[in-house]
Design goal:
The complex is a heterodimer. Chain A has helices at 15-45, 48-55, 106-111, 139-146, 169-172; strands spanning 70-72, 91-96, 102-105, 115-122, 127-138, 154-159, 164-168, 178-183, 186-187, 197-199, 212-218. In chain A, strand 2 (91-96) and strand 3 (102-105) form a beta hairpin. Chain A is α+β, with helices and mostly antiparallel strands. Chain A has five helices and eleven strands. In chain A, strands 1, 4, 5, 8, 9 and 10 form a six-stranded mixed sheet that branches. Chain B is built from six helices and five strands; from the N terminus they run H-E-H-E-E-E-E-H-H-H-H. Chain B starts with a helix and ends in a 32-residue tail after the last helix. Chain B has a five-stranded antiparallel sheet with strand order 1-5-4-3-2, with helices on one face. Chain B is of the alpha+beta class. Classes of the chains: A alpha+beta, B alpha+beta. Chains A and B meet through helix 3, strand 4, strand 5 and strand 9 of A and strand 1, strand 2, strand 4, strand 5 and helix 6 of B.
Chain lengths: 244, 240
């Protein structure tokens, strides 16, 4: 049986090649479109975590899941120039405009008053982790121990290979802002900043520097690694402050 | 007879052969670009979907719970308790601080035991074949000379794109098919920018949004807990 829509190739053999190519392109486009639509529908239908988070409100009245975010079950490894991840060589330098700068190794960090805080974190690429239990030391406590000089307004997180992230003092010393070494009772994997990383959950997650090496208190703001590369200087997820 | 036969000859040669030279250079740049394009294109796809997978490493993590490790247990005794449960063998490095016992292995495996809860986590990872290196090059983490190599590749791509427009004449060239496809290639990103609102769209949308009001008065901050005041039990936490 012949297809009526098909040209008569016996009569016009030169059309065969072009017809085959056209059929191939049509099939390829249709197949790709079906896969894309099917995949998107499946992803939307299966996204119960996001639906649940979106239905909840924070104590400040904002939605628990900021706009443009999708809730995931675990942190995603987003790359970065890794530190060595070694607890033996870990050092945290607390310095800048402070009265008593100091340095902590891992054991000394664990001797400071520890807290465990439930926090949601939001990556600028669009995923969020809801309800993580982060254990560590409050940055407010480190600030108090170092004694801030008058005029300090910003905190610069310093990390391996010169990475920095700038955070306003108020947000860096919030109740849930930590230097943290454990999530849900487990140590961080090297991809996630082991052994110790920063945590500023109310700002996009790039502010929570992985492989942290220092906390510097300063009077004048110093845009960090991503901030000088086109990302927003403040990074509030509820205002979608993703880019400058 | 022309006044400048040599000049006229050169002009004629260029006029006659420029498309051939364009094609020859395009061909050779194309060959040179194969390796670079594989690196940049494959790592580009890999990194583009970084929120869905780890493009650099295969990571494995398993957790188990053992009896709490007594604080007065010696390092050797504590290590013996942990490796008996994990089956990871004698560690190359042991570190103990606070409530943690960390065992390091030369293959990169790390075992961390939380002494007072008995939670043990075994973490290991292997770099992905090809992509680990390709991504490193793509990110240009090393900087230095690769910056200039990558610049040269970008210049080659510019040449390939622009010379490609003029390589073929007639209906398959700019007269018909070429113009349509070049137009689509330029229109697609422009349309995306226009339809999405561009880089400042989010800021404008959020600025127009109504300000949320607090649902309830903010409660007093909870007291900080410590090693002995753990949070209340909750539903099992998501695996990292």
């Amino acid at each position: 049986m012949t297809d009526e829509r098909q040209p008569d190739f016996d009569r016009y053999p030169e059309l065969k090649k072009a017809w085959d190519r056209r059929q191939f392109i049509k099939s390829a486009v249709a197949g790709t479109a079906m896969m894309a639509v099917g995949g998107t529908l499946l992803r939307i239908a299966a996204d119960d975590l996001s639906k649940k988070a979106r239905a909840e409100k924070r104590k400040d009245g904002r939605e628990r899941l900021p706009p443009g975010q999708r809730a995931l079950e675990a942190l995603r490894a987003m790359g970065g120039d890794e530190g060595d991840g070694d607890v033996r060589t870990f050092k945290l330098r607390v310095h800048g405009d402070v009265k008593t700068p100091f340095e902590l190794d891992y054991a000394a960090l664990l001797k400071l008053p520890q807290v465990t805080k439930e926090a949601d974190v939001h990556c600028v690429t669009g995923w969020s982790l809801i309800g993580g239990q982060f254990k560590g030391v409050q940055i407010a406590m480190l600030a108090e121990k170092a004694g801030l000089k008058d005029g300090v307004r910003h905190v610069i997180f310093e990390a391996a290979h010169g990475y920095t992230a700038n955070v306003p003092l108020k947000e860096a010393t919030a109740d849930t802002a930590l230097v943290t070494y454990r999530l849900n009772g487990k140590p961080f994997d090297l991809s996630h900043g082991a052994p110790v990383r920063g945590l500023v959950p109310d700002l996009y997650f790039w502010k929570s520097a992985k492989w942290i090496t220092g906390i510097r208190f300063v009077a004048k703001d110093e845009p960090g690694y991503w901030e000088v590369r086109g990302y927003n200087n403040h990074a509030d997820p509820w205002k979608e402050e993703r880019y400058a | 007879m022309p006044d400048d036969p040599a000049g006229a000859g050169l002009g004629a040669i260029i006029k006659k052969r420029w498309r051939g030279w364009l094609r020859a250079i395009h061909r050779d740049f194309g060959y040179l670009a194969v390796g670079f394009t594989l690196i940049y294109a494959l790592s580009g796809i890999a990194i583009n979907h970084i929120k869905d997978w780890d493009p650099n490493f295969h990571s494995q993590e398993r957790s188990l719970t053992i009896a709490p490790i007594p604080t007065d247990a010696t390092d050797d005794a504590a290590v013996a308790l942990v490796i008996a449960a994990t089956g990871t063998g004698k560690p190359d490095d042991v570190f103990r601080a606070g409530d943690e016992l960390r065992l390091g292995y030369s293959d990169g495996t790390n075992v961390t035991a939380i002494g007072d809860t008995g939670q043990v986590t075994v973490q290991a990872r292997q770099p992905r074949f090809f992509l680990r290196i390709a991504n490193w090059l793509h990110y240009n983490r090393g900087k230095k000379a690769w910056t200039y190599v990558a610049d040269l590749y970008a210049v080659m791509l510019l040449y390939l794109a622009i010379s490609g427009i003029f390589m073929i004449k007639g209906r398959l060239g700019l007269r018909w098919r070429g113009t349509i496809l070049v137009g689509i290639g330029i229109a697609a990103p422009l349309a995306y920018v226009v339809l999405s609102g561009g880089p400042t769209a989010n800021n404008a949308r959020v600025a127009d949004a109504p300000v949320a009001k607090p649902a309830e008065p903010a409660p007093a901050p909870p007291p900080p807990d410590d090693e002995f005041a753990r949070p209340k039990p909750r539903v099992p936490p998501p695996a990292p």
